[in-house]
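Put briefly, the fold is written as integer tokens. The lines below illustrate.
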Amino acid sequence: MLEVVILIVALIISLIIVIKSADVFVDNIVEIGLALGISEIILGVTASAVGTSLPEFGSAMIAILTGTPDMGVGVAIGANIWNIGGILGISAIFAGLITTQGEELRRDGVMAFLTALVLTVSLFLFGNISFVLGIILIIMYGVYIWILIRAQKNNKNKEIECCDISEETSQEGKSQDSKKSLNTKTIIFAVLGLVGLAIGCRAIVYCTVELSTMANISEGLAGILLAFGTTTPEFFTVLSSAKKGLNSLAIGTVFGSNIFNILIGLGIPALFVNIPVEPITTYFDAPVMVLITLLLLLLIKRGMKLSRVEGVILVLAYVIYMFTRLFFIM
């Protein structure tokens, strides 16, 4: 009993370390990028996705590379299902209404669905995540980033066209004056954030493996349960955004995180090892991920919004999934 308590406490501390380390790493890597002259558009797109998904990515990566691939895949897929059914559903219930735009639904929503579908079909056909599939997933993410950058550049160009030349010149001067300089402190904190992530994720995987062994549950299910902790950044970001009326940020965080979790969270580890996937993940968890993503798109498409009713539907869908997973097909 004492060992279980110690492991649970260690798991909670590890999650806190990982979440804080992710914040430190992302904040400082953005500073470094700005100092090196990397476009704010690129930094904004990548940092927003990576920032909330680093705990899942780190946990999945460490789990896969240390011999517990089922847990790594479980974290990625479990996080995606929870992001939609749990986080977005709960946020819609508390906020009352989350609206979205057609462009976001066509671009980010369709990409999230396509990502889930490609992974699921590949698992049905091959039963694992191979090096070739890893390359395909990473290329898909690169294409998605390119689409986002192009869309943001187009919006920026339209804004510039609406401004006077004098205002444009003034803005350029301000931009040059505010150019950030690279300092040693920023680099050190970025490295410390990365080290904290690595250590924290390794501790998370170790504690989860030990607890799942004691509870006699599979590594895949353990990963799905672990996703409750690793998605904490998404939960607070989406809930806070929805309550403040920042609808695009709320829905965009979920779509962006889900895309990143699969394309990068599973794509990069596949470059190093062939990732076997347990049958229950292939025939149940992955299809549920596809279906709940499709359900979200259909609910939004009805009126380009999520009301409390749609939120309840999403939460109920997640409850049914977890009840089935825990009590019928563990």
Notes: The longest helix spans residues 2-35. The domain at 2-327 is CATH 1.20.1420.30 (A middle domain of Talin 1). The chain has one domain: 2-327. The radius of gyration is 20 Å.
